[in-house]
Model the fold of this input.
Amino acid sequence: MQPVRMTDQMWQHLLSLRDGNVRPVALPDDPVACGLSLYKPIALRNGSFVMAQVGQSLDGRVATPTGDAQDVSGCDGIAHLHRCRALVDAVVVGVGTVVADNPSLSVRAVSGRNPVRVVVDCNGRLPEHAKMLHDGGMPVLVMQADDIAVKPSAHEVIRLKRQANGWLSPQDIVEALAKRGLTSILVEGGATTISRFVDACLVDRLHVSVAPIIIGSGPAGIRFSPIDRLSEARRPDVQVYNIGSDIVFDCNFRAEAGDAAVSPQSQDVLMADTA
Ligand SMILES: NC(=O)c1ccc[n+]([C@@H]2O[C@H](COP(=O)([O-])OP(=O)(O)OC[C@H]3O[C@@H](n4cnc5c(N)ncnc54)[C@H](OP(=O)(O)O)[C@@H]3O)[C@@H](O)[C@H]2O)c1
Done:
């Protein structure tokens, strides 16, 4: 497990990478270098990049059965989520998350830019009073099926073809965002929305941030299509980071388990990073 220490200098370096500015930075010790290997794949602008993030308990829950989801993650888990938000162009959530949590999806725990907010709301049930529609923050884009009635709204609605299975295609969502210059995307939840993106093989990285609490019952943070045998389970290359209050499992779906002995991140040297 790799300990992560985020310094202000390293965070400014990551923000400048996110803006396309490549400057060398000194890496004083291992924990700072580990921070670079955790966040650099998100910050680098190498075409389309989709990541998902789940903050969960030791027993894999994201809320109680009554829907209390406040503070599952510890303070460092929350800072981690906000760093991820600050490094991407857009944050995507399903309408179930907006109904349950009424989030603002802004960057507050660290310095950095707020992402565009995207709600996948196939059937047009996003509450008009949702906080993000009225907080004066970054634009909200709502993805709807093209077969539902058009309603006047103050936010931009992107109408996509409904698939034969009744869902919107995550690929269509990614392409619609790319047309607007939004090429790095954080799918923040919930489980339904993340599973659609993973099933469509669109997720490059999945961060599972585990907090040391046991809820014992309640919804899971990840829910993939059912499988019969463990041999069919997803086995991404996983790097594990101790970020303080929480542990982050960084799952690389683009690398098969076993190919990870020399990861691109492990090539970062301790003297300097030139991106
Ligand atoms: N701890 C965390 O990291 C975290 C983060 C976010 C959310 N959460 C929790 O997750 C829970 C909500 O998760 P959830 O799985 O119930 O809901 P969700 O994923 O937020 O939203 C699911 C709904 O969004 C729409 N949707 C999403 N993807 C779609 C697609 N590809 N095509 C068409 N429609 C799509 C559908 O709406 P319709 O039903 O209208 O068709 C779907 O039922 C809450 O308890 C929240 O607190 C936890």
Residues 258-270 have pLDDT under 50 and may be disordered.
